[in-house]
C-alpha cells in the first residue's frame, strides 16, 4: 500500500538522522527528498539552514515540481537542491526518493579521471549501474537540467564529477541503500589507492554475474528495507525526536 504523507515525513526524517549518524553530513548543505502520493507532483525536502540532526517530520518543507513552497513554513529551501531534485523527480516517474552527499570518499572518486573502478567487493556489484554527470559549477541554473536528466538516464546511481554522489530509489530505503553501496565502494577504492599497492582486478566473468548474485542475496526482500529498518531502530534508541 502507498504510504501516507505523514508516514513518509517520519521515514524521511529518520533517513536524515541516519545520514548524520553515518557521517554523511556537510554543514547545512545536501539534501534528501521524497515524492508524495497523489497527482500534484509535490515532494519533501529539508529546511535550508538546519543540520541533518535537527530535521523532523514536521519541519520538512513541501514543494511542487518547480520548487515553490506549498505550505506555511518559517524555512526556505536550498536553491541547488531544488534544481537537482526537481529535475530528476520531474523526469523519472519511477523515482520516489533522491539522496545527495559530499562525503570525502565520494568527492575523491568524483574528482578522479577514472571514476569508480569495479575492483572491490562493493563496486563489482555496481557494474553497469553508475552514471556520470560533468561538473558545471554550483547547480543553480535551469539550463543544466536537460544535461543532468540525459546523463542519469534510467540509472539510479550518479557520480557528479568534481562534486559528489547522488542516488535514486523506488522507496526511501532503496535510495538509502544505493547510497550506502556507492559510498562504501568509494571508501574502499580510496583506501586501496592510499596503500600504493597493485589492485587485483575483477574478471569480466564475475562482473557479468553481479545482478544474478544480488538477486539471490536479496531473497525477495524489498531493496534496502532490512538495512534501513535496522538503522531506524538504532536511531530510535539514540534520539527518536525525528518523529516530532
CATH topology: L-fuculose-1-phosphate Aldolase
In the sheet with the most strands, the strands line up as: 3-2-1-4-7-6-5
Q: List low-pLDDT spans.
A: none
Question: Main sheet?
Answer: 7 strands, mixed
Quaternary organisation: single chain
The number of distinct β-strands equals: 7
Quick synopsis:
With 244 residues, this protein is α+β, with helices and mostly antiparallel strands. It contains nine helices and seven strands; from the N terminus they run H-E-E-E-H-E-H-H-E-H-E-E-H-H-H-H. The protein is globular and about 55 Å long.
Please explain how this structure is put together:
The protein is an alpha+beta fold and 244 residues long. The chain has one domain: L-fuculose-1-phosphate Aldolase (3-Layer(aba) Sandwich), CATH 3.40.225. It is 41% helix and 12% strand. It is built from nine helices and seven strands. The protein has helices spanning 5-21, 79-91, 104-110, 121-124, 145-152, 172-195, 204-208, 210-218, 225-238; strands at 31-35, 43-45, 61-63, 97-101, 130-133, 157-160, 164-169. Strands 3-2-1-4-7-6-5 form a seven-stranded mixed β-sheet, with helices on both faces. Helix 3 (104-110) packs across helix 6 and helix 6 crosses helix 9 (225-238). The protein is globular and about 55 Å long. The model has no long low-confidence stretch (mean pLDDT 95).
Amino acid at each position: 500500500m502507498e504510504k501516507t504523507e505523514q508516514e513518509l515525513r517520519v521515514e524521511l526524517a529518520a533517513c536524515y538522522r541516519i545520514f548524520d549518524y553515518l557521517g554523511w553530513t556537510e554543514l547545512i548543505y545536501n539534501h534528501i527528498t521524497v515524492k508524495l502520493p497523489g497527482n500534484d507532483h509535490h515532494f519533501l525536502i529539508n529546511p535550508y539552514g538546519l543540520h541533518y540532526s535537527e530535521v523532523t517530520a514536521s519541519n520538512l518543507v513541501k514543494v511542487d515540481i518547480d520548487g515553490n513552497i506549498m505550505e506555511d513554513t518559517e524555512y526556505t529551501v536550498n536553491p541547488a537542491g531544488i534544481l537537482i531534485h526537481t529535475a530528476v523527480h520531474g523526469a523519472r516517474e519511477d523515482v520516489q526518493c533522491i539522496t545527495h552527499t559530499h562525503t570525502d570518499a565520494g568527492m575523491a572518486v568524483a574528482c578522479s579521471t577514472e571514476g569508480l573502478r569495479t575492483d572491490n567487493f562493493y563496486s563489482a556489484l555496481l557494474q553497469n549501474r553508475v552514471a556520470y554527470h560533468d561538473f558545471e559549477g554550483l547547480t543553480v541554473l535551469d539550463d543544466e537540467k536537460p544535461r543532468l536528466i540525459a546523463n542519469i538516464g534510467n540509472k539510479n546511481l550518479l557520480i557528479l564529477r568534481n562534486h559528489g554522489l547522488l542516488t535514486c530509489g523506488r522507496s526511501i530505503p532503496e535510495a538509502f541503500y544505493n547510497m550506502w553501496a556507492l559510498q562504501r565502494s568509494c571508501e574502499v577504492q580510496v583506501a586501496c589507492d592510499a596503500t600504493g599497492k597493485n589492485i587485483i582486478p575483477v574478471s569480466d566473468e564475475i562482473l557479468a554475474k553481479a545482478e544474478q548474485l544480488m538477486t539471490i542475496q536479496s531473497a525477495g526482500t524489498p531493496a534496502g528495507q532490512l538495512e534501513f529498518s535496522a538503522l531506524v531502530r538504532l536511531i530510535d534508541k539514540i534520539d527518536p525526536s525525528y518523529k516530532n
